[in-house]
TrEMBL record:
Belongs to the amino acid/polyamine transporter 2 family. It comes from Meloidogyne javanica (Root-knot nematode worm). One of its GO terms (molecular function) is L-amino acid transmembrane transporter activity. It is found in: Cytoplasmic vesicle membrane. Keywords: Cytoplasmic vesicle, Membrane, Neurotransmitter transport, Transmembrane, Transmembrane helix, Transport. It is a multi-pass membrane protein. Its main location: membrane. This is Amino acid transporter transmembrane domain-containing protein. GO terms for biological process: neurotransmitter transport. Pfam families: Aa_trans. Residues 87-424 form the Amino acid transporter transmembrane domain. One of its GO terms (cellular component) is cytoplasmic vesicle membrane.
Amino acid sequence: MAARRLQNLQEWTNQNLFLASFDSGSYSYQNTLPTNNRQPEIQEEDDGEFELQNLASSNPFNKKQQNASDDKLADYGEIGHSTGSKSITSLQAAWNVTNAIQGMFIVGLPFAVKVGGWCAIGALVGVAWICYKTGLALIECLYEEESNGNGRKRIYRSYREVAEAVRPGMGKFVLSAQLTELASTCILYIVLAGDLLQGCFPSVDRQAWMMLTTLPLLGTAFLDDLRVVSNLSLANAVSHLVINAIMFSSWRFSSLVLIPDFRLFPTIIGVVVFGYTSHIFLPSLEGSMQNRSEFKQMLGFSHVAAAIFKALFGLIGFLTFAEFTQKEISNSLPDQTFKVLVNLCLVTKALLSYPLPYYAIVQLIGENFFNGIDVSPFPVCYGNDKRLREWALSLRVLLILWTLWMALTVPYLVELMGLIGNFTG
C-alpha cells in the first residue's frame, strides 16, 4: 500500500509539476545512452533518428518498452530515454541552443561589463566564436569516414565514448567534468534564487531564502519521465532592456573603461565562458535533427544571436546604472515594486530551470554507477516492477540537499560562475 501511494505521488508530480514545462523531443542531454563496454550498433534512418539494435529493449525509463527481460534490466540498469521520439527542425534546434546559452545567468553580464569594460564586450563576442568552432569540432568527433568512401557515419553518442576510444581510461575525466558542470549549474540556480529574494526582502538573510526555495525542488526527486525542459521565455531579460531604453538619458559611455580591472577580469572571463557552455547538450541535439547537414548553420545562427543579445544586454544594463550596477542587474532597479515583480519572475524561472541539469546528473550517475552489480559498483535503481526503489529515491533527495549545502557554503554567484567557467569551459 505504501509503495502504491509513493507511485501515485510520483506520477502526480510528473504530470502536474513538471510536464507543463516540458516539450516532447529527444534532444536533451538526458537522452544520451550509457557508456560501458557494450557498444550498441547505431544505424541511421531516413528520418534522421537512431535505431538502437542492441539496447532497444533494455530501457527501464521508456514506459513503452516494458517487455524488457529481468536479466537485461540487471545488466544495463537505469539508462536513458528511447530515441524514438519525434525529430526536430533546424529552427527548433536553434531556439533550444539559444535558450541554453542565454540562460538565467545573463543577469550578471552588466556587472561583467562594469569590471571588464570594452574588453568584456569583446570577450562576449569572441567567446561566442570560439564556442561555435569547438561545438563543430566536438560533433565532428562523433563521426568517422566510411571505408567505402560513401561519406561519414556517426558511431559515437557521447563525449565519454569518444574519449575512451581515443585513450582508454580518459572517459572518467570527461565524466567528472560533465558532472561538475551540471552540479554547479544546479547550485547556481539556488544561489541566484536566494540572491534575488534577498534583494526583494532584505529582512530575511540569503541562506534562509536558499533553504526555502529548495523545498519545492524536492519534488524533482520523483521525476522519472523528464523529456525536455520547454523553451522558457526570455521576457524577463527583454523587460530589462525596455527599462534601460526608457532610462537612456542617464547613459554614460565615459563610465566604460578601456583597461579592465585585472584583479577581477579572470573571474569575468569565466562568467562569459560559463554563459556559452551548451556543448554538453550538442550530441543528443544534433542526433535528433531532421536534417543534420544544417547543424553548422543552426549552431552559427544561435551563437551570433546570443553574442549580439548578450553584448547589448551587458552594455545597456551597465550604461543604465553605471557604478551602481550590482551583480544581479534586477537588484539595480530603482523602483522597489517593479524590482520585486521582476525578481519573483526570475526566481520562478530559476526553479523551473533546475530539473534539467539535476535530471541529467541522475542519468549520468545511474548510467555509470547503478547499472547492476555485474557491470557497475551498485545495483539498478529500479525494481522488476519498473518502479523507483525507496533507497534510490532517498539518494535523489540527498543529491538535492547536497546542492543546497554547496550553495550555502559558497554563496557567491559571480565568483562561482567564473570558477566553473574557467574549469569546465
